[in-house]
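Readers outside the structure-tokenisation community will struggle with the description of the input data as it stands. What matters is that the chain and its backbone geometry are given together, residue for residue. For illustration, here is how one protein appears when written out as sequence plus structure tokens:

…
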Amino acid sequence: MQTKTVNENWSPAELIDLERYPILELSGDATRELTRHCRDQLDRTGACELPGFLKPDAVAMLVREGDLLAARAYHSVVTGTPYLEAPDPSWPNDHPRKFFEPTSVGVVAYDQFPDNSPMRQLFEWDPLMEFIAAALKKDRLFRYADPMGALNLAVMGDGERLRWHYDQTDFVTSIALQPSEAGGDFEYVPLIRSATDENYPRVKRLLEGSSTEVVHVAMNPGTLLLFEGRNSIHRVTPIVGHTTRLVALLAYDTKPGTRSSKGLQMARYGRVA
């Protein structure tokens, strides 16, 4: 069977290995078991990996699309803390909230994906969103209303990295497309803090280099990753080599109409909507 090109029509269902991941029948026994598996992983570790969620030929096609889009990426270098906010001056200088590190990454924004982009069509496909809602045990999800932040392609080249940080959203959905030659590892510490305990001593040891309890997630193309990063600190280690690391980021929320602030848009995309 011949492999389709980027320009040929791909339906979203053709991209997914539906035999392994039967996401279309949410009330079916197989899908219920799959969503229970996702929820169990999330409850235990804050993350759920679904390797081989996309078919190999679909991944190859999406990498070709990603390589074409990568030239449009806005690359930024921002120095900040794991808490993504300006620290209170009253904190001591060695406090985790005053630990500054750089983040450098390129991003292709939602409005830069063509209407016929297979990745865009997958993101806009209701059955995928409904499955993710079930896996996250949410009654309903909505796509981000942000014209730039709803769907992103993270484009990371030699030397780029994401610092240790917490997310300001409850969950992130990503699809791994292409690993770098070396580096580019996704690392996190599961549930290092809670709503009632910031666990600053443990965070401080991590920022000083302790690798205790750090989980490494291999960059396997085609993997769907559901990650609850509000309480699990995480990073991407520096990229090494000439192969661009490509990851699609699909943004959903439990409320309709969610948009990024103009400040965040400017920092991430170099422009405002």
Observations:
- The chain has a mean pLDDT of 94.
- Residues 47-122+145-269 form a domain with the Jelly Rolls fold (CATH 2.60.120.620).
- The radius of gyration is 19 Å.
